[in-house]
Amino acid sequence: MWLTDSSIGRKFVMSISGLFLVLFLLFHASMNLTLIFSEDAYNWICEMLGANWYALIGTGVLALGVLVHFAFAIVLTYQNRKARGNDRYAVETRQEGVDWASKNMLALGIIVLGFLVLHLANFWFKMQFQELTGLKTGAFDPQNGAAYVKYLFTGLYDPAGIQEGYEFSPMANWLHPVYCILYLVWLCALWFHLSHGVWSALQTMGMSNTLWLNRIKVISIVVATIIVGMFAAVIVYYLGMFVGANCF
Amino acid sequence: MDKNINIKVRVWRQAGPKAKGYFETYELKNIFQGASFLEMMDILNEQLIAEHKDPIAFDHDCREGICGMCSMYVNGHPHGPDSAITTCQLHMRKFNDGETITVEPWRSHAFPVIKDLMVDRGAYDKIMQAGGFISVNTGGVPDANAIPIPKAKADEAMDAASCIGCGACAAACKNGSAMLFVAAKVSQLALLPQGKVEAAKRAKAMVAKMDELGFGNCTNTGACAAECPKSVSLTNIARLNREFLAAKFQD
Ligand code: HEM
Ligand code: SF4
Ligand code: FES
């Protein structure tokens, strides 16, 4: 199969799976953004994308996408190290115009993946998983996602929102801003990954020429900034809320 | 103004393909900055011969930037610190008095060291043999204007054809990828009507050979184009991707 046997085929899989994840993130980030404007709107989305069949299929396809992207990333990087050979140069320099992210895509991707695990434990396990199994893994009703997000990042909650029969003990207050900072670090790594990834994916698919090469590089930065900006806005919003509630 | 400088040259010495290599540092006095880098290497070798030592083996031929033989990795750059030139076009005025210059061979799995600074770049020849040509029947010389070609296309093809097959692209690449070379060789033909006939077959055959020989997967870092002595553009890689993907989707 040429998609696995040829270098350009493997790169093609890499770029398709990467762009698929980019589209998902755009979708995800715009949903999150509603938190700033209306908690009701966010909760309406939580209801829509609970544990029904389309949300589950979506989750499955997504997991497959991450898996393919990750598996190919490992294989490609391994093959590339082998192609480089065991003898390294004694003097290594940076070439002009070669961005740092492009040489550290695997490392950046692994940081992204590490935080993804934390993120799934924070949210997916307490929301979709809870709805699926009926086990009370979280203090809040999954349909009331906004209350949970707010609690995680600021520590603020309405005691009436705690689910019946759940032993709720609030976590240490300093953990809330730490979560905020961790998520912001994660977003930085994502920004670097995408600032190279998007144009690299388009180039791999052949969508580049003398005119478009610079354009797709700009598009890459813009897409990375939009995605990371939307996610970060929500975190910064809650971080501000935490500071407001605790420091004044 | 060019003056005479004293330098140290730290060179990779390796007796043969299987031997273990090491760096050795030589001192050179009164090197004229107007000399070329290879002339400096010649002076060094004469000094070594006078001392009854083994001279340093390095590839060179035309010494005017057209054959692609000279292949030295100087101070962290293939073809040295200057841009858009070959090692043979590099001048000693790029270096300062008292400087230590590190000279290494191309290092890439598919370019094994033969001796000292000389590496086996036969892999590029094998890729060419796999499809870097057009098949035409011999006969009378056709009229040069019989096939009209737009000027822009002709220029792009000419730019791709400026590749001299030196191997700096794979040597510079952190992934040991030969994509810039293969892209240039596919592009110079794919852009022209004469090359279109076998375009799909060519792209598939050359990429397959490149993969078989153990070159890496391109991740578009761009180090190749930054170091290429002929400034072959990254856009050629996009064209190679297009040609290859189109050929595979047609199958
Ligand atoms: C699971 C953790 C991840 C790892 C280990 C990872 C790793 C990699 C690696 C090694 C590359 C190849 C570098 C290159 O071809 O330039 C790559 C490319 C890419 N990644 Fe990721 N990545 C991960 C997650 C993500 C996520 C979550 C996204 C999307 C939001 C993403 C988007 C991309 C894109 C668009 C490319 C460019 C594909 C191409 O160059 O052809 N990656 N990734
Ligand atoms: S593309 Fe440039 S660096 Fe690569 S072989 Fe051709 S001339 Fe040398
Ligand atoms: S010796 Fe011919 S290009 Fe340098």
- What letter string, H or E per element, gives the SSE order of chain B? EEHEEEEEHHHHHHHH
Largest interface: A-B, 43 and 51 residues
Q: Uncertain runs of chain B with pLDDT below 50, 5 residues or more? A: none
What's the N-to-C terminus distance of chain B? 62 Å
The value of Rg of chain A in angstroms is 21 Å
**Any idea what the CATH superfamily of chain A is called?**
Fumarate reductase/succinate dehydrogenase, transmembrane subunit
Comma- or semicolon-separated keywords:
heterodimer, A: 248 residues, mainly alpha, 3 helical TM bundles of succinate and fumarate reductases, 10 helices, 74% helix, 0% strand, B: 251 residues, alpha+beta, Ubiquitin-like (UB roll), Fumarate Reductase Iron-sulfur Protein, Chain B, domain 2, 2 domains, two-stranded antiparallel sheet, 9 helices, 7 strands, 36% helix, binds protoporphyrin IX containing FE, binds iron/sulfur cluster, binds FE2/S2 (inorganic) cluster
What this model shows, in words?
The complex is a heterodimer of chains A (248) and B (251). Chain A has helices at residues 2-5, 7-37, 39-48, 53-84, 100-103, 105-124, 128-133, 145-154, 175-204, 212-247. With 248 residues, chain A is an all-alpha fold. In chain A, helix 2 crosses helix 3. The mean pLDDT of chain A is 91. The relative contact order of chain B is 0.14. In chain B, helix 5 (179-190) runs antiparallel to helix 7 (199-212) and helix 5 crosses helix 9. Chain B has helices at residues 37-50, 122-131, 151-161, 168-172, 179-190, 193-196, 199-212, 223-227, 235-250, and strands spanning 4-13, 22-32, 73-74, 77-78, 100-104, 113-115, 118-119. Chain B has two domains: 4-114, Ubiquitin-like (UB roll), CATH 3.10.20.30; 122-250, Fumarate Reductase Iron-sulfur Protein, Chain B, domain 2 (Orthogonal Bundle). Chain B is elongated. Classes of the chains: A mainly alpha (248), B alpha+beta (251). FE2/S2 (inorganic) cluster binds at residues 60-63, 65-70, 86-88 of chain B.
